[in-house]
Amino acid sequence: MLIGAGVVLIGLVVFFFGDKFGWLGRLPGDIRVEGRNGGGFYFPIVTCIVLSILLNLIIVLIRKFFG
């Protein structure tokens, strides 16, 4: 139930404040290759690393205070 509540909370934040996170996914180091015919490839590697670090810090803090 806690995981479900967390997902709902994240969804509400993205729904109401999604325009504030415009920088997310456009960090320096993200790979973007655009094709000539409108196709392309996009892999947000730096964004994935930043989110991974933030989520790990949150999990460590939760375990420290509630574990």
Automatic annotation (TrEMBL):
The keyword Transmembrane helix applies. The chain crosses the membrane at residues 42-62. It holds the Pfam family DUF2905. The keyword Transmembrane helix applies. InterPro entries: DUF2905. Keywords: Membrane, Transmembrane, Transmembrane helix. This is DUF2905 domain-containing protein. It comes from Nibrella viscosa. The lineage of its organism: Bacteria, Pseudomonadati, Bacteroidota, Cytophagia, Cytophagales.
